[in-house]
Amino acid sequence: MELLQTETPLEREQILKRLMTNFAEIGRRHDRAQTVPVENIEVLRKSGYAGLAVGETYGGAGISLQELLSLQELIAREDGPTALSIGWHMGTMYQERTENNWSEYSRETILHDVVKKGFLLNTAATEKATGSPTRGGQFQTTAQKKNHQWILNGEKTFYTLVEELDYYLILATIEEDASTGMFLIEKGAAGIEIDRTWDMVSMGSTGSHDLILKNVTVSEQALLKIQEKKGSPQAWLLHIPACYLGIGYAAIQEASRYAKEYAPNSLGKPIATIPAVRQKLGEAYLLYQQSHTLLYGIAKQWDEGSNEERASMRLPLMMAKHAVVQKAMKMVDLAMKVVGAHSLSHQSPLSRYYRNVRAGLHNPPMDDQTVEVAAASLLNE
Predict the structure, then answer these.
(1) Digit-coded pLDDT (tens) for 110-143
(2) Burial class (CB within 10 angstroms; exposed 0-12, middle 13-18, buried 19+) of 243
(3) SS3 295
């Protein structure tokens, strides 16, 4: 298998495209079964994809935010759930590199496994009692210090790719001072249970089941960091709109293919010649180009910005997610209008794109939060 640990972004892009030959078909099968496309995930593991966002000091490629988003979009064009699933790992690795606040002991161990073995990890944050962690609720999952060990208890929901992860990153309230800690737990640890609750109309094959912790005991070193109340803007979350942009692009391409090939006998030529069809295709493609310019323009601003400039980018980062997801949904809707009722068939990829793209509304940051931050910014609050 070709490896992605090469010298240039162009080479990595070309290799990734070759590796994804069967991703779309595999994704289609798993969508129908509502199971994780493990074959796609395994290809990405073996190719070295998991380590691309890791810093060069630890053997990774240290890719830019722009390249990370571009690669994630390419995967999403083939299969959205594969992109969103691996995207949480990739974003976490990018966040670790930019914030650089894990303990050195943990960094050496974990990042070696990610780069050399293709290990995957994701942060377990969402809980039933608190809802989205972006809204500021206190975690009900607790960590108690006892005899130089930590004992964790609680339950996490919507934990993407949980059955395939090699490490769990758990956000928990430390009982001693009510601060929030991030804890590392290895797969297979005693007291870990997975409750297979994920049964969704959208992104159903991401395997985002519940993780239950019952007196899970880990060492002192398992505490990776204390979460800051107001940390730096989370640019890594742009992997989310990159995923939905990829789905929107795939829908446009499918509608274009259909329009060029479908020629009803009442017309005698492909429907791509009809002005109304061309209007919808053109509108959809303009939405893609607008979204692409916005998303990658903000990513470029982040890549080239100083720490001070990055600290002021909270609203642009939130705006990118809000705008791109909204436009991606409209891209899919326009594509389906081109194809008509056939787009509702499970045999059409458009029905899958339609369902999956709507999950973006429920990924962070939420639209109402973005609008409130925009209002507060305007009012100098």
Answers:
(1) 999 999 999 999 999 999 987 677 676 789 999 9
(2) buried
(3) helix
At residue 149, the 3 state secondary structure works out as strand
Nearest to 75 by CA among 202, 243, 241, 299: 243
pTM given for the model: 0.97
236-278 pLDDT, tens per residue?
A: 999 999 999 999 999 999 999 999 999 999 999 999 999 999 9
Q: Please report, for residues 95, 177, 235, 248, 363, the alpha-carbon distance to residue 101 in angstroms, rounded to integers and kept in the order given.
A: 10, 20, 16, 35, 25
Contact 326/300 with Cβ under 8 angstroms? no
Alpha carbon 345 to its chain's center? 27
Nearest to 81 by CA among 123, 131, 141, 33: 33
> Which pair of structure tokens corresponds to residue 161?
């790719």
**Which positions ≥6 away from 13 have C-beta within 8 Å?**
70, 71, 74
pLDDT digit string, tens, across residues 22-49: 999 999 999 999 999 999 999 999 999 9
